[in-house]
Structure formats: structure tokens, C-alpha cells
Known about the structure:
It is a single chain. The protein is of the alpha/beta class. It has one domain: P-loop containing nucleotide triphosphate hydrolases (Rossmann fold), CATH 3.40.50. 35% of the residues lie in helices and 15% in strands. The chain is built from 13 helices and eight strands. Strands 3-4-2-5-1-6-7-8 form an eight-stranded mixed sheet, sandwiched between helices. The radius of gyration is 31 Å and the shape is globular.
Amino acid sequence: MTADGGFPGHTGSSATEMPPLVQAPRPPVPANSEVSSSEAVPLRQPAPSVELGPTGRPMPHLPEPKPLTSHGNARVIAMCNQKGGVGKTTTTINLGASLAEYGRKVLLVDFDPQGSLSVGLGLHPHEMEYTIYNLVMEPDVTLDDVVVPSGVAGMDLLPSNIDLSAAEVQLVHEVAREQTLQRVLAPALEKYDVILIDCQPSLGLLTVNALTAAHGVIVPLECEYFALRGVALLKTTIDKVKERLNPGLEIDGVLGTMFDGRTLHGREVLERLVQAWGDKVFHTVIRRTVKFSDSTVAGEPITSYASSSTGAEAYRQLAREVLARCLDG
Length: 329
């Protein structure tokens, strides 16, 4: 044992004393004193539950549209995509019918020589006395001569058939050929609230006419990879029309159609669409359902053929979103 009471060869602990096993309680903090950040213990607040839509963004509240006391000052919207089979005609019919349900007076314009919009509303293309071709090419034919009822209250139709394909050739030599549709639709602006133009699946002269006459464009886009690829070319055409012919043209929205949330591919395409177009993508997404094909065969919108189906509810939601975004907003 050494002189200080230790043992030889043992250095001992460097601590002056052992820490207590139980720490003494801290004195209470006065109410008017500040607590340091090291002592403050934040309380975890429960995160509010946010409903995410199929696009991965929070779903906005879409209120019921207010009824109108008068009609007129129509907004012209072109349904445009140069790729076929993406849901342009289906969207034109069912969005128009949904807007009519909310009290809007709607005119549908079949500007596709295939006449799918007219057939989808129960008309026989070769039994019509007048079509949009006569309105565009014959000066003595008026809008009232061509407009027919669609079978849906508050919604009328300008029908079309294969004759319209000749107009694209004949208009080439006309002066101000790009403004032809805009001129013939001018009288309809004071009679309707919304005019929806179903464009042909190309970026030719008829589509340029529709874009020149329109205030906005809705781009229906199938949630498939090949449909996604062609949107850049459409955007270029819209930008050229905006620059040279129609400075007020806007893209009202991009609509995902034929969506199947069970497939990874469909979800990835929709995610890529939101990344590319941002808030231009509608929160509403149209899912695949056989009811759309059945309603087309029946010659009526899905909102009347299968009123309580998911497809009908989706187009009603789209109508509320379109009204909130670019009509009533």
C-alpha cells in the first residue's frame, strides 16, 4: 500500500467522484423565464390527414356550381390530341352532358370527318341534311340551319360526317383559312356558356382552325407511354397558334384517361405527366370502364346511361373542376 492509501501499480479512475445513480430533480422553471433549446421538449402534433388523389396530389374541394341567371359569353374549348383513341370524343360527350346537368348551356362541335361525336349521340352521319361542312363552306347556310338537339337537355350539337374531309383541301386556297371556324361560330358565343370542339386526330388545317377559334385547350391523354411521347409535338403546335393566330389561347388542362391504377405502368405514366405539366394536369382522372363502350353503343352520355357509375361521377367531378378552373373561377 502506498502512502496515499492506494495499491502499487494501480492508477485508478481519472474522475474526481462517481456520478450519482439517480439525478437530483431539477428546480421548477418560473413561468416568465425562457427555456433553452437544449432543455425544451417539443410536443409531436399528429399530422393532419390529407386525401391524395390518383395524381399523387391533395384533392381540392370542388363545390357544387352555382346556377346561372343568364346564358352567353361562351368559352370555346378544343379537345385536342393528334393521337387517336385517347378519349377526345368520349370526354367531349360526357363533359358536355355533365356541364349541362349543372345548368350550363352547351354546344358540341363535331370537327372530325369520322363523325364519331355525332354517332356517339345517336345520329346517322349519312342521313343529315346539313353538317358542319355546309356551315364552313357555304355562305348561305346559317348556324341555326345546322344545329340539332343532342337528346340531352341544355346541350346541342353541330354534326359532322365524311364530307368534312373535303373542307381541308378546299380551305387551302381560301383567304384567312385558319379563321374559318372562328367566323362561323361567332353567332353561337352569345347563346351558349360552353362550346366544346371535338378535333380530329391530326395537326392539320382543321385542328389549326379549332385552336384558332378556341379560348382554351383540354388535352385528353391515355395513361400509356406512346400517348405521352406525342404531347411535346402538340405543345409545339399550340405555341405556334398562340404566337401567330390566337394570342389568347391557353391550355386549360391535361386529362389522364383510360387509367388503370392496378398497373405500375399506368401509375408511372401519370406521375411522369404531373412532373412534365405540373398544375395543368387535372386532379380528376378517368378510369377504364366498360360502361363507356356500352353508352356509346346506346348513343347517349354515360351520365344518363349509367348515372351512378364511377365513370359518370368522374365526369361530373371533371365538370366541377373545369368550372372552378376556367369558367366560374
